[in-house]
Amino acid sequence: LYLVWFIFYLPSTIQYNMDRQIEGRAFFFKLIQQFFLSGPPNSALWFLTALFVAIPLVYLLVKKCPIWLLLSCSLILYALTVLEIDYHAWIESITWINIYSQLIRNIFGWFANGLCYGFFFCSLGYILAKQRIRYKEQYFLKRSFFYGFGLIISLVAVIAEGFFIRSHFADASFGAMFSFVCVSYFAMNLCLNWRKKEIKGCRVLQKMSILIFASHYFLLFGLNIILRNQKIYVELLTVQYVAVLIASIIFSWLVVML
Fold first, then answer.
1. CA 112, CA 121: separation in Å to the nearest integer?
2. Which of 228, 65, 89 is nearest to 165 (CA)?
3. What is the pLDDT of residues 34-89, one digit of tens each?
4. Quick count: other Cβ atoms within 10 Å of Cβ 202?
5. What is the pLDDT of residue 156?
6. In the chain, alpha helices (H)
7. Other CB atoms within 10 A of residue 191 CB
8. Which residue, 14, 41, 62, 224, shows the most beta carbons closer than 10 Å to its own?
9. How many other CB atoms are found less than 10 A from the CB of residue 237?
10. Are 190 and 20 in contact (CB under 8 A)?
């Protein structure tokens, strides 16, 4: 699946590298980095390359260290990522963080990768799965309301943190937030409960989610070309977001149904 999508985005990837005057051997190595570590630019395929790194990393580390140490180390790396890309003004004068940030960019190309993002979320997923093996499943099923309520509160926290970042940090990318930790915990538990109950439609939504994530940049480019003369679409980012969301949902549903 990833190979198909990478080939699909290959023309825009090549153009992206050419626009930045990457030539010769550097061009070849950049393509290798983009295929194995960062995913094609201007796409959301980084989440697959993040899994390629994070899953083997978690698999190897759980054999060598305690679970609490695994989660702590991954959380520290995630926190450093949040500070670098959304709270940069607070840490820009700290030399060792700048060295660390440059090292990450040299290896992975950017921070959306298996070490900075995937490591923590895969570690959290492993720990939640481990808990469900240790304790009775019924214990977690009874807590669905708690997980749902916690998810709603966490999403409110995401909005609040987004407003805070926007008002204090002009160069923020909103690529990672501290509140995503809580959202992930409650959402993972809630989804595991739904899967256990085999709620109708969950399997279809699971398949659609992958297609939505992989296709929305492609659909964004397409809509930008089709609607480039529509003033309300060009000037309002919210309209673009809603249009791409609807288009990606319809596209994913048609592909899954076919």
1. 12
2. 89
3. 888 888 887 777 888 888 889 999 999 988 888 888 899 999 999 999 988 888 88
4. 13
5. 92
6. 2-19, 24-33, 46-61, 67-86, 88-91, 95-108, 119-134, 137-141, 144-168, 179-197, 202-226, 231-235, 237-257
7. 15
8. 41
9. 9
10. no
Secondary structure of 215-235 as H, E, C letters = HHHHHHHHHHHHCCCCHHHHH
Q: How far is CA 93 from the centre of its chain?
A: 27
- CB-CB contact of 137 with 196 (8 Å): yes
Query: Which value, to the nearest 10 degrees, does the dihedral of the CA atoms of residues 145, 146, 152, 157 take?
Result: 180
Cβ-based neighbours of 17, under 8 Å, separated by 6 or more:
27, 30, 31
Which tokens belong to 26? 């550097």
**Helix/strand/coil for 255:** helix
Cα dihedral sign, 1-190-120-162: positive
Tell me how far apart the alpha carbons of residues 75 and 115 are, in angstroms, rounded to a whole number: 11
pTM of the predicted model over 0.85: no
Q: Which residues contact 10 (CB under 8 A, 6 or more apart)?
A: 40
Q: How many CA atoms lie within 13 A of 125 on its CB side?
A: 15
206-211, long-range: CB within 8 Å, 24+ apart, which pairs? 207/252, 207/256, 208/249, 208/252, 208/253, 208/256, 209/252, 210/1, 211/248, 211/251, 211/252, 211/255, 211/256
Contact 120, 74 (CB under 8 A): yes
Cα(69)–Cα(101) distance, rounded to whole angstroms? Answer: 22
Give the other-Cβ count within 10 Å of 133's Cβ. Answer: 7
Query: Any idea what DSSP says for residue 40?
Result: -
